[in-house]
Amino acid sequence: MDVAIVLFDGFDDLDAVGPFEVFSHAGTHGADVDVGLYTLESREVVTSSHGLRIEPDGVLPESPDLVVVPGGGWGDRAAAGAWREAERGDIPEAVADRHAAGATVASVCTGGMLLARAGLLDGRPAVTHRGALEDLRQSGAEVVEARVVDAGDVVTAGGVTAGIDLALHLLDREVGTDVAERVAILMEYEPRGDVHEATG
User: Fold this and answer.
1) What domains can be seen in the chain, in order of their start residue?
2) Has this prediction a pTM greater than 0.85?
3) Is 109 a known active-site residue?
4) Which end of the chain is less crowded, N or C, counting CB atoms within 10 A of the terminal residue's CB?
């Protein structure tokens, strides 16, 4: 499973790094999982909302199996972050293109608003950070207040730390329960909250 995590200036650190660590552990412990951090255009460094500077692995691949979109900077309409990227429209378009090509698309926190802007959540069950639930509802999504909402080819998670639960759930679903459990034990993390599984 090739996992591509999308980075942009102002992303929330743990939204991206939490899932990255989960998928990375799976790959180094024998699962067929490869994960990378990518931008839409070639960049030397991307700066998170908390000032973490990350050197991305390259430009977002055309055909990953899974695309993960973090949030950050939505609630305060920050100059850099998910709000800015939604207004620009490039990430929503790129994510919609990968989804149309067959990728599963997932979001953490207000990354869900980028999926909404891409039109991927219209009439579908989804969740985002609690501070953006009304925005998500107004976007046309069916808001489900769960830790993770699995609608098949689109999977969304609540705020920040829920990205770890999202990644563990996707490992369980795509690779196997034994791998997900081994990674959770290794990270000393106990999955919390419920996973709402839906279709459509």
Assistant:
1) 2-188 (3.40.50.880)
2) yes
3) yes
4) C
